Amino acid sequence: HRHLLGIEPLHPEEIRTILDLADQYVDLNRRAVKHADALAGLTQINMFFENSTRTQASFELAGKRLGADVMNMAMQASSIKKGETLIDTALTLNAMHPDLLVVRHPHSGAVDLLAQKVNCAVLNAGDGRHEHPTQALLDALTIRRAKGRLHRLNIAICGDIAHSRVARSNIILLGKMENRVRLVGPPTLMPSQVGELGVEVYEDMREGLKDVDVVMMLRLQRERMDGGFIPSEREYYHRYGLDAEKLSHAREDAIVMHPGPMNRGVEIDGTIADDINRSVIQEQVEMGVAVRMAAMDLLARNLRAADRPAGVMA
Ligand code: CP
To answer: 250 by DSSP, 3-state: which?
Structure first.
C-alpha cells in the first residue's frame, strides 16, 4: 500500500505484519526503541485540523524515534483561517517534498481525497466518523499482548458507537481477525446501518458485558451530535457508565480499554480506569507509539521500493 487510509483495505496478514513490527519497537519487557534510522532522510508533516493529544504526540515521537525530520503544522495559525481550502493547503505542502503526511480532519473522506492529490504517503490520523486506523491497530496490539491472541475473543464496544471512527475501525479490524464483536449502548447512539456490520447489538449493558474478554469504552462525542439526541450525563452514567458492578458481568480476567480522551464519571468510573489489574489504558498509549513507528516504517519501505524520482525523496 502507498497510504494508510483505513483498516478496510488491509488483509489479516498485513495487519499481523504491522503488529509484529510494532512488537519490535516496544519489546515484551516494555523497552522502547528510541533511536533508529528507518525514516532517516525523510520528512514527515503532521496536519491536525482537529484537537489531539495522543495521536499527534505519538506520531511526532514515532517519526523522531525513527530519524525523520518532523514538522507539526499549527493549523489554527495556518492560511486555512484565511479561506484556503484543504486541497490547496495540501498541494502547497506537497510542493515542499514531504515523504509522509499525517492528517486528522473533521470530515469523513477528507483524508482519502487529499491522498489522491499528493505524491507522498498519507496516514489517516482520524477523519470524521469514518476511520482511525492506527487507533484500531494499537488497540489490536494491546489486546494481543494482554490476551496472548487476537482471534476468537468476545469483545464489547460500549457507548457512543454512532459518532465513533474508533469503533468503526475496531469493528472492521476485529471482524477480519475472527473475533465476536458486541456493540453495547442506547439505540440512539447506534449507527444506522448496524445490521450490516456483522456484530451483536445490546441495549442492556449487563447483558452486553456477560462473559466478554475485552470491554472497550467510548466517549460521548457531543461535538458530533449537532442538535440530535444528547443524553444527560447522570442518566448516561447510571445506564452505561462502566463501574465495578457492571464490570463484574464480564469475565474475571476481562481487560478494560478506552482510546481517550476519557470523561471520568460519564462513560467510566475513575477507579476502574486507574485499576492496573483491569485497565490497559496506559498500555494503549504506549502501543500507539510502536504501532505508528511500524506503520511509517512499512510505508517508507514501499516509498523506497517504488524508486521515486530524484529530489522527491531526500
Ligand atoms: N485516541 C485518540 O485519538 O486520542 P486524541 O484525540 O487525543 O489523539
So the answer is: coil
Q: How far apart are the first and last CA of the chain?
A: 21
Tell me how far the alpha carbon of residue 228 lies from the centroid of ligand 1, in angstroms.
23
Rounded distance, CA 306 to CA 182, Å? Answer: 41
Quote the pLDDT of residue 313: 37
Task: Calculate the dihedral angle through the C-alpha atoms of 126, 25, 258, 300, rounding to the nearest 10 degrees.
Answer: 10
Cell of 220: 460521548
CA distance 90 to 120: 11
- Whole-number Å distance between alpha carbons of 76 and 16: 37
**3-class DSSP state of 97:** coil
Task: Let me know: does 127 contact 165? Beta carbons within 8 Å.
Answer: yes
- pTM of the predicted structure, to 2 decimals: 0.95
Q: Distance between CA 258 and CA 6 in Å, rounded? A: 20
Percentages of the chain per state (helix, strand, coil), in multiples of 5: 40, 15, 40
164: left (phi over 0), alpha (psi -120 to 50) or beta: beta
Q: Which residues, 6+ apart, have CB-to-CB distance to 93 below 8 Å?
A: 45, 47, 73, 101, 118
Ligand 1 nearest-atom number relative to CA 132? 3
CA atoms within 13 A on the CB side of 306: 17
Report the binding-site residues for carbamoyl phosphate. 54-55, 104, 132, 135, 260-261
Report whether the peptide linkage leading into residue 261 is cis, meaning its omega lies within 30 degrees of zero.
yes
- Rounded Cα distance between 264 and 280, Å, is 15
pLDDT tens per residue across span 32-46: 999 999 999 999 999
Ligand 1 binding pocket (C-beta < 6 A) is 52-55, 126, 135, 259-261
Ligand 1: distance of its center to the CA of 218 in Å? 11
- Whether the ipTM is more than 0.95: the answer is yes
Query: What is the predicted pLDDT for the residue at 307?
Result: 67
